[in-house]
Amino acid sequence: MNKSIIILLLILTIVSCQKKEKNKPIAEQTKTEKDTTKTYRVVNYYYDNDKDIREEYEVYVSKEKDTFWNQVRYFKNGILDNSRSKHYVLKISGKKTDSFLKGTIRFYSPADSVPDSKIHSRNVIFTYLQEVNDSLIHEEIRTDKNIIEFDYKNYGNLSFEGHISDLRFIKIDSTPEKLNLNRNYFAIDTEVWTNNTFVELLK
Predict the structure, then answer these.
(1) At the topology level of CATH, where does 24-202 sit?
(2) How many CB atoms are located within 10 Å of the residue 141 CB?
(3) In the sheet that 87-93 helps form, which strands lie side by side, from edge to edge?
(4) Where residue 48 falls among pLDDT bands split at 50, 70, 90?
(5) Would you say which domain of life the source belongs to (predicted)?
(6) pLDDT in tens, 22-33
(7) What is the DSSP secondary-structure string of the chain?
(8) d(CA 116, CA 104)
């Protein structure tokens, strides 16, 4: 076989192997110590499709190695594309000494691109753990918006656990008497190791 052909084949093989290695999902390493008292660990993976596109995934992993996919962020040329992503942004402001903190959560999904004229109805339920009289209760807010503001009484060193259920009933032009149901669920957390009971709802 011609020596130049052999060299070309070797180069193609090396390039092919490099592409495969690049396209493997990679887990980000966290520096937090392992907490065996917690049920879940939050792991973030990223996946580079090519030099311009990157996908980032947030996954809950249980002690039994069960996985629950929670968030995905899609980047093109380093810019987050919310129209193709499913994720939330949580902000809690205030000091530990404050009686109540101010919270804001905003969430995104591809369903946000559906025109309002196509939405028959929408039900958003935001649930979170709240301390009241030394007991933990489930506080609930119902809305039809992507942005929710709430009061939050700090417990557990500013930790936060919650859940969002977003159900949209979408009209079908060809069959007006029927509706498509679009569902999006998020477990909300501020810790890497967690006992968040809402994770099971991601199934």
Answers:
(1) Immunoglobulin-like (2.60.40)
(2) 15
(3) 87-93, 101-108, 147-152
(4) confident
(5) Bacteria
(6) 466 676 656 678
(7) --HHHHHHHHHHHHHHHHHHHHTS-EEPP--PPP-TT-SEEEEEEEEESSSSEEEEEEEEEETT--EEEEEEEEEETTEE-GGG-BEEEEEEES-TTSSSEEEEEEEE-GGGGS-GGGEEEEEEEEEEEEEETTEEEEEEEEESSSEEEEEE---TTT--EEEEEEEEEEE-SS-TT-EEEEEEEEEEES-SEE--GGGGGG-
(8) 23
Termini Cα distance of the chain: 56
- Residue 47 · residue 59 · CB < 8 Å: no
Name the residue among 70, 26, 56 with its Cα closest to residue 162: 70
pLDDT in tens, 95-148: 767 778 899 999 999 999 999 999 999 999 999 998 777 788 899 999 999 999
Q: Domain spans of the chain?
A: 24-202
What phi, psi does 38 have (nearest 5°)? -100, 150
Tokens 């959560």 identify what position? 105
